[in-house]
Fold:
Amino acid sequence: MRNMTALLSTLALLLLLAAPPAMATTSLNDLTDVTYDTGTPHNLIIGQKVTLTSGAATNVFIGELAGATALNSTSATDQNVAVGYNALRGLTSGAANMAVGYEALLANTIGSDNSAIGDSALQSNISGDDNNAFGVQALSANTTGNQNCAFGRNALGANTTGGTNCALGYDALKNSLTGSSNVALGGNTGATLTSGSNNILIGDSVDVPL
Structure:
């Protein structure tokens, strides 16, 4: 019985090796869900067959529904990287953005020079520029705020229009909505701050004075 099993396995392997390839490809563009512009645009799109608007260049979109669509892209859609389902999905004319993770920078249309790494990081950003979000839901509610940095799960998660904030730590400045120029270092730091500005808070769960 053992010999018969071995013989059948060997025959199956030989048949597999002898079978012709199911599909012969000579380039990425031969695949049904890949677009690779080898000419001037230098765009690479894996996960959907999309040809961006003329002038859009040096973009890399990897994942189902990742990156700008043919309809939404413009000649200014340049130097963007989107990796993950729905990452940078709303992109129109924004440039030099990097989104890695499920729905990272999902709503971003014209915002530029943003980096979002993590599930839903900078998810609601529309036109904010120069923001950096690293962590699940970091800066997820930001819409127009500029020059914010958030490192940690839900850091600056509620921020919408505030700018030049820096939050480092799990839930750091998690409830700040419109405050600007705040610095928070530590888990759950600045938890009650919603609109205050120009605060420096250092230490686990340290908060603004009552």
In short: The chain is about 10% helix and 15% strand. The radius of gyration is 23 Å. The chain has two domains: 27-130, 134-210.
